[in-house]
Amino acid sequence: MFLSGISPAVHHDLQPGGRSPYDGDDGDRTLVVLLTFGIFFSFVILYLVAGLIWAVVITAAAVVLSFLYLRVRRRRAAGGRLELPV
Question: What is the sign, positive or negative, of the torsion defined by CA atoms of 62, 63, 68, 70?
Answer without folding.
Answer: positive
